[in-house]
Amino acid sequence: MSRVTHYDTQRMMAWLLSKEPYFTVTVQSASAPFNYSFTPYITAGQSFWVDWGDGSKETFTTVSSSEKTHEYSSSGTYTVRMRGSAGINRVRISPTNAGQAALVIGSNGNLDKLGTITVTADMFRACPNLAMTELTGGITSIDDYAFQGCTNLAITSLPEGVTSIGSYAFRDCTSLALTSLPEGVASIGIYAFYECTSLALTSLPANVTTIGAAAFQSCRNLALTSLPDGITTISTQAFAICTNLALTSLPEGVTSIGNSAFVTCPKLALTALPANVTNIGSSAFYECKGLTNLIFLGTPTSINPNAFSASGANLYVPWSSGAVVDAPWGAASVTYDYTP
Predict the structure, then answer these.
(1) Which residues fall within 8 angstroms of residue 30, CB to CB, at 6 or more apart?
(2) DSSP letter for each residue of 2-61
(3) What is the pLDDT of residue 16?
(4) Nearest Cα to 277, choosing from 235, 312, 232?
(5) What is the largest CA-CA distance in the chain?
(6) Do the beta carbons of residue 27 and residue 107 sit within 8 Å?
(7) How many other CB atoms sit within 10 Å of the CB of residue 321?
(8) What is the CB neighbour count within 10 angstroms for residue 275?
(9) 83 to 58, 62, 268, 330: CA distances (angstroms)
């Protein structure tokens, strides 16, 4: 029989920890006593078990949507272990008390042990010290406000099963450094990645058809060069102040470009606008100084008077002077009756 070494023991312990059948939350306080609260949304027939990490354990079986609070008598770091029965459809890990929320410093992200495969609305909202690095458990969606304000969140990837990212889901997650999104993602909600200044996506999944207003506003490291073919609307402020955005074209199906959609995107390098574009909103291309010569492949019904302000763009259009009102729409020049 071969001898079990210290290295073998360490590997086994690491494997066991990786297979831990619980969802964990780590809380830390330098003072005592202190409270930590979370909210399991329990319906009839469901149960929720928690080990508070200080020797106290509880099981909740009563229908409830109220916070469960535990008081710790001593300062320090505690690992709270949780399990929920199958069918739990929502759990809020973040306390509603902002002071308590700041005590949350980590989690193993093993959501299926809570009885859910959704990062539910508000789950980790406003936990600025949360240092979670991964999500596991067959997750299919990231709901509204799930991680808003988690400024230390350092997830580098999302589970492949995710198909939707809700409104404000990662707003102000300034440490979030995703380089890609799962291929199944079809919708990205309003303000989903607002002010995610470390977000470094170079492409979006081909299945994406909806990008909400301000979804990527102020994502200064966003370096997309193209958008999915299914996009038909560039929503208001969708890519505002994305200073590294380097799109060279827009999908042929785009019909509308919203107010301030690309405001202050100096590296935007479009050479043409699709034939189907019918509307261009206020300040849509404001300060997009990379637009030198821009060809219109169709004739919009409406272009806001300030659509191209401070861009210095020279526009080449297929219509005659006066056919679309409010020229020159803030552009440096307009060449009419242009044929590519």
Answers:
(1) 75
(2) PPPPHHHHHHHHHHHHHT-SSEEEEEEESSSSEEEEEEE-B-TT--EEEE-SSS-EEEE-
(3) 37
(4) 232
(5) 91
(6) no
(7) 10
(8) 13
(9) 11, 15, 48, 59
Q: Across-strand partners of 82?
A: 23, 50
Burial class (CB in 10 A: 0-12, 13-18, 19+), 162: buried
Provide the strand spans (E) within 185-264.
187-188, 210-211, 233-234, 256-257
Euclidean distance between CA atoms 314 and 321, whole angstroms: 15
- With a CB cutoff of 8 Å and minimum separation 6, the contacts of 73 are 32, 33, 54
Handedness of CA 262, 264, 269, 272 (dihedral sign): positive
Q: Please say if the pLDDT value at position 19 is more than 50.
A: no
Mean pLDDT over the full length of the chain = 92
CB-count burial class (<10 Å; 0-12, 13-18, 19+) for 337: exposed
Q: Is 10 exposed, middle or buried (0-12, 13-18, 19+ CB in 10 A)?
A: exposed
**Residue owning tokens 């219509």:** 319
The full length of the chain comes to 340
Q: pLDDT tens digit string along 23-50?
A: 999 999 999 999 999 999 999 989 999 9
Specify the pLDDT at position 115. Answer: 85
Any long-range contacts for 198-207 (C-beta under 8 Å, 24+ apart)? 198/174, 204/228, 205/181, 206/230, 207/163, 207/183
